[in-house]
Amino acid sequence: MAELVLHIDKLSVALPTGADRPMAFHNISLQLHAGQTLCVVGESGSGKSVLATTVMGLLDKELKVAGGVVQLLGESLLDASQARLRALRGRAMGMVFQEPMTALNPVMRCGEQIDELLRTHTRDAASQRREAVLRMLAQVRLPEPERMWHSYPHQLSGGQRQRIVIAMAMIMKPALLICDEPTTALDVTTQKDILQLIQTLQQETGSAVLFITHDMGVVADIADQVLVMHRGEAVELGGREQVLHAPAQTYTSDLLAAVPSMTPPPARQIADTPALLRAVSLGKTYDSAWGQAVPTRALHDASLRLRAGETVGIVGESGSGKSTLARCLLRLVDPSSGKIFWGNDEIATLPEAGLRPLRHRVQVVFQDPNRSLNPRMTVGESLVEGARNFGMSRVEATALAEQLLLQVQLPAQAMTRYPRQFSGGQRQRIAIARALACRPQVLVADEAVSALDVSVQAQILQLLRQVQQQYGLGLLFITHDLRVAAQLCDSVIVMRQGKIVERGDTAILYAQPQHAYTQALMASAPGVAA
Question: Does residue 496 carry a pLDDT above 90?
């Protein structure tokens, strides 16, 4: 039997007084040995991330350990001093967070941030440390390690930043690596690379991995053991095959049932009506930062057509041009070439004064409602504002806001509350209601469900179908999740390096992808229980 790295026995953490339940989690027990991967899965609010921060000694001050044991290589972490915990972090245990931009210092070069671990935990000379950092950068498959050493976080892509965070976590070859949703916001090919990287480093170092995720496909790919959590309780703990293929608990079965299938449903009949949104040979070129290098062509000759009641999906890796295309269609950025039609109105070069009266026709739901909703405005104020901007009286706008909240399955009392008082899934419902308050013809959903757990994701997708059917909306759905696109979209556009490389009816494209890149995307989608 491999060495026991992490031992947790009957661990409980209490929530602050006034919370909707007394415990963040209760009586959690597990054992994790060297070389093993334990995946912790569950919905938002299940206690997954609190478990990780408790092990790392980074528990929020409002939360208190109410009992139990946490041992790392036989040493009690709950009894350790802050000085001892600082010594263990990095050397004996490392952590990879979900959002690398919040984990990295924006004013330090990436190499310096990795080197900081070596300066803290070793007495190596500067030249030795530099060589070790460059080796680590190469080990995490980053191109041009020397350039990466000198780069700042904002100069790298999301996948590259996550590799920097992994390099920081692994540079000391810790016995325990904790990964908290490290691939949630990444496209399928980058996600596959990151998962393979973590597994490779694990094999080389013998680290035990505690991997927190809501993606059951990721669990199917990497887990040795699976812990299923729900509202702070350990619902099920067992080997991967047993949990995924013969779950003992109904909740586990429900989680698996909520995972979208890669097999599209039968095609719907869409009436061949005039397009609500149309792009013709759209292009976008960005000048370089200093005006000297070759300009960047982010979008090449892109055309699409969206009708009432139709859902068109746009898929591709980070940097493929998906969001650039969406921003051009929304006229959040000006295209460099081509035409855009909202109904019969050509708006690609329309000045803002002429565009403003038309903006209610095309509305957007962004990935992160925390950033798109004003934290200082109540939900009611946010909903009323959009309707008022396009001519409604306050009385009419307030009545519409209350109606929309009910439609997105939120109580009317939500009008007087602030976004922070809602869960992530509820905030996304509010963002959808706010977009609908402008009475749009087209809804652009830009990664609108990528950060949500599978059960909440299923609810939001069902909500989008319902509002589309009720209002006859055209829905442009941008996603890196091929499973979601398979279930929601009537047709799919595949983008790579700013170009549309393939398009077609969803069922046909998924069954017989023609382009090599589309085939690679399909092959990269994480597995899931049958």
Answer: yes
Residue appearing with tokens 């085939």: 519
Sheet holding 277-286, edge to edge: 296-306, 277-286, 337-342, 345-346
Q: Residue 235 to residues 232, 257, 311: CA-CA distances in angstroms? A: 9, 16, 37
pLDDT digits (tens, 9 = 90+) for 433-461: 999 999 999 999 988 887 777 777 888 88
**Token digits for 369?**
């409602």
For tokens 């949990």, name the residue.
243
Element (H, E) at 27: strand 23-33
pLDDT tens for 383-405 read 999 899 888 999 999 999 999 99
Distance, in Å, from the CA atom of 339 to the CA atom of 366, rounded to the nearest integer, reads 24
Stretch 130-146: mean pLDDT: 91
Residue ranges, comma separated, of all CATH 3.40.50.300 domains in the chain are 4-92+174-257, 277-524
What residue has token string 């009910």?
406
- Please state the rounded mean pLDDT for residues 10-17: 92
Q: Which residue has the tokens 């939500």?
A: 414
Q: Give me the chain's average pLDDT, please.
A: 91
Question: Is domain 277-524 classified as CATH 3.40.50.300?
Answer: yes
Pairwise CA distance, residues 493 & 514, whole Å: 12
Helix (H, G, I), strand (E, B) or coil at 209: strand
How confident is the model over 298-341, as pLDDT tens digits?
Answer: 899 999 999 999 999 999 987 788 989 999 999 999 999 999 99
Among residues 365, 330, 346, 362, which one has the least CA distance to residue 442? 362
Rounded to two decimals, the pTM is 0.79
Q: Which residues contact 65 (CB under 8 A, 6 or more apart)?
A: 11, 12, 13, 14, 54, 59, 78
What pLDDT, in 10s, does the model give residues 194-246?
A: 888 899 989 989 999 999 988 888 899 999 999 999 999 999 999 999 999 99
* CA atoms of 362 and 293, how far apart (whole Å): 35
Which single residue is written with the structure tokens 């300066």? 119
Under CATH, to which class is 4-92+174-257 assigned? alpha beta
> At which residue do the structure tokens 């692994």 appear?
170
What distances in angstroms separate CA 457 from CA 88, 278, 318, one per listed residue?
A: 37, 28, 21
Query: CB neighbours (10 Å) of residue 487?
Result: 17
C-beta separation of 189 from 482 below 8 A: no
d(CA 313, CA 449): 13
Q: Nearest to residue 108, comparing CAs of 125, 133, 88, 128? A: 133
Task: Give the pLDDT band of residue 529 (cuts 50, 70, 90).
Answer: very low
DSSP string of 34-93, one letter each residue: TT-EEEEE--TTSSHHHHHHHHHT---TT-EEEEEEEEETTEESSS--HHHHHHHBTTTE
Rounded CA separation 223/213 (Å) = 11
